[in-house]
Amino acid sequence: MPRPTRIVLPALLLALAVGCGKTTTPEANKDKGSGTTAKSGASADPKAAEAAKKFAADFLASVRDKKANPEQLTPEFKKVLGDAAPELAFLATEVAADEVTAVAGPDGSAFAIGRSKIAPRTLLRLAKSGSDFKVDWISVGVKGVSDATLTGEDAPAQFAAQAFLDAIARHKAGHASALLTDSARNTLGKSPFGGFDQGALKNKFDELIGGLDKYTVTGTSKGTITAELPFAGGKKTATIKTAKGSRPGEWLVDGVEVK
């Protein structure tokens, strides 16, 4: 079991509760998560995990060597990245590829961790594509985040929570937004004038964990992930509720509480 990661948070951290204690309706979430909070569904399949590990190791090495191809990404993730080619080129100096581990699920998805002695760890979500895989998400940790928690059937939910924290910490509001259910996105991004506002969503992310550079996943229970957020003057706990998405391996953040 991977050792837990650690995280430092700034002094100004607002208590926030988004959607906690309620389930997203299918209508509100038909494209971005069903609201299901059952077990995530990854399992210990040694052959599938070994195949995922090999693909992940080869892919991360190709990114590092500036040989990765956008065609190795799913259409859904390419949409998040926009112009994928320069993004992959930028990641050449960011990804960790020295040591790779993976877990695989029965639905064709898999999750991998790339580690390095000199760089933050990298997370990958993989989707089955024919006899091989495609990359469905890449998440690079911030400085000080050298490992991750991905354990068995809880891996999809754990991945979603950690990728969400990574995205906010790296000021990638678009990525963080894509990891939310529709219900959570609309709640976090609610404009003072009514309706959804992308700027309001970004501001809420900054209020939530602006300046984040470390965190530690401390627990997982039925799709809810807890993380320790140390900061100057004390510690806070983030409770991140996740919900199953519409695609294999996709889980999304459906609620966040920090206190």
Summarize the helix and strand pattern as letters.
EHHHEEEEHHHHEEEE
Radius of gyration: 17 Å
Order of strands, widest sheet: 1-9-8-7-6
Q: In the residues, how many domains can be counted?
A: 1
Global shape: globular
Unreliable stretches (pLDDT < 50, length at least 5) are: 1-40
Total strand count, please?
A: 9
Tell me what portion of residues adopts beta-strand conformation.
15-25%
| Category by helix and strand content | alpha+beta
Write the layout of secondary structure elements.
Blueprint: E1 16-17, H1 46-64, H2 75-81, H3 84-90, E2 99-104, E3 110-115, E4 122-129, E5 132-140, H4 155-169, H5 173-178, H6 182-188, H7 198-209, E6 216-221, E7 224-231, E8 234-244, E9 251-258
Antiparallel strand pairs: 1-9, 2-3, 3-4, 4-5, 6-7, 7-8, 8-9
